[in-house]
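Q: Could you fold this chain for me?
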Amino acid sequence: MTRRPLNDAERAVLRRILAAHPGLLAQLDHAEVTSAWSEGSLSVDIEVPNATPAEGISGVLPGYAYVEDIGELLVWVDKGVLAALEYAWHTDEPPTELPSPDRITLV
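A: Sure. Below is the predicted structure, expressed as structure tokens.
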């Protein structure tokens, strides 16, 4: 996979999840997908060249982004910089597209 900008679906999902995290939200304009976790996977690794790190955030972003009847979305952060978007599902078949932001419940 070649490095690429976030697609519209990835950007919309991340905007919804990061709404309460302005330091990370500011990184979206420069975020790039570097690889998918596996062929056909909606989970992706992200890099943000020259990002200004958001203080005090590393690991899985606190909170819960639930997608009803499918699973959850996790945002991984490495030393204040966006690192990955993971779509974890609990259905028999993996989802084939990211959910629209209005289907994401934040807790």
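A (continued): The chain has a mean pLDDT of 95.
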